Amino acid sequence: MSYGAFEKVHAAAEDRYERLAYRRAGKSGLDLPALSFGLWQKFGADYSYEVQREIVLHAFDLGISHFDNADRYGPPHRAAQQLFGRVLAKDLAPYRDELILSTKAGNPIGPSPYLRGGSRKSLLTSLEHSLRDLGTDYVDIFYSHRPDPTTPLEETVGALVSAVQQGKALYVGVSNYSPEQTRDAAELLRGAGVPLLVHQPRYSIFDRRPEQDGLLKLAAEDGFGLVVYSPLAQGLLTDKYLDGIPADARARNSQFLSPDVIDDTYRLRAAALNRIAEERGQSLAQLALQWVLRQPQVTSALIGASSTRQLDHNVRALDFPPLLPEELAMIDEHGVHGTGWKP
Ligand SMILES: NC(=O)c1ccc[n+]([C@@H]2O[C@H](COP(=O)([O-])OP(=O)(O)OC[C@H]3O[C@@H](n4cnc5c(N)ncnc54)[C@H](OP(=O)(O)O)[C@@H]3O)[C@@H](O)[C@H]2O)c1
């Protein structure tokens, strides 16, 4: 299906709920699609509106009803949300009730002290900007994007609670918080009658921190879900870098993925993981997504994509048989924590 510039308002695919499983977010009442879509990279003012629109609409057609944003995403900051707002106004407004829109605040987006950090002023100002950019009265999930040790946690949590009480967010989440910070935030939120819905950590075959630091365990005990970001390690857990770095790949054009990390050690491990995937009749990308989703605490794998082809491919990750213990052991051997990171 094409979504060219002069085409009519998009009519969503009728079979959009037949492709993807939905999973319950912790002990809440909210189900999220097993794959969510984020607009961190290749969305914003520098990219073709038509391509961005096509990817967003294709995701929705595949059943990916959860779109993850942040005031910071661009370039420039706020541009990804403004792009999404344009698509929402033109094409997705009739489906607003079917969408889960997330945004985050607290990462720096400007020189002002009120455009950074976890203060009440910063978080609630950012939320106002996000609602304006997205063109919606409320977001479904409002996150504290990262912990701010210079601000009392009570103040940050209080701003999240206010967002819900003001009807500007339905649920709240935290991202990049340590298990200890998460436990404290969850307790404060519970006390205010606004339970923590989800935590958004980085988790992939090459980033084992949530297994090692106890976050997965805490999620099970505390009853919040995990929406895990960069499950493909920004593309390193696909076959695209096995024979070099393609010209249009993120490692060529993003400040967040340096070509330096694509070294012999990386290639050996990725090639070994690729062979495990091939033995199972799937691609490395599909294996990597299935791998994070094997954890019951993981509500959704939060992916990016630079084409509709990648989305079509990745959505099939859920069609394969569960990973066997011996396959998981082989993945552990080659999926070394820290692979693909800059020193
Ligand atoms: N909370 C936080 O602090 C935080 C931080 C980072 C991200 N996030 C969220 O997580 C979302 C996803 O992060 P991410 O983009 O790093 O996730 P990812 O799924 O690990 O990486 C996505 C990238 O991998 C490549 N790719 C995807 N499918 C592919 C396939 N089948 N074959 C080959 N290449 C493929 C594409 O890059 P190219 O084609 O461009 O190479 C794509 O943009 C973000 O958009 C954001 O919403 C949150």
From TrEMBL:
From the UniProt annotation, give the residues forming the signal peptide.
none
The NADP-dependent oxidoreductase domain, residue ranges: 35-334
Kindly indicate whether the keyword NADP belongs to this entry.
yes
Q: Which SUPFAM superfamilies match?
A: NAD(P)-linked oxidoreductase (SSF51430)
Record-linked InterPro entries:
K_chnl_volt-dep_bsu_KCNAB-rel, NAD(P)_OxRdtase_dom_sf, NADP_OxRdtase_dom
Q: Does the keyword Oxidoreductase apply?
A: yes
Any idea which UniProt keywords this protein has? NADP, Oxidoreductase
The record's similarity note reads: Belongs to the shaker potassium channel beta subunit family.
Instruction: Kindly provide the name given to this protein in its UniProt entry.
Output: Aldo/keto reductase
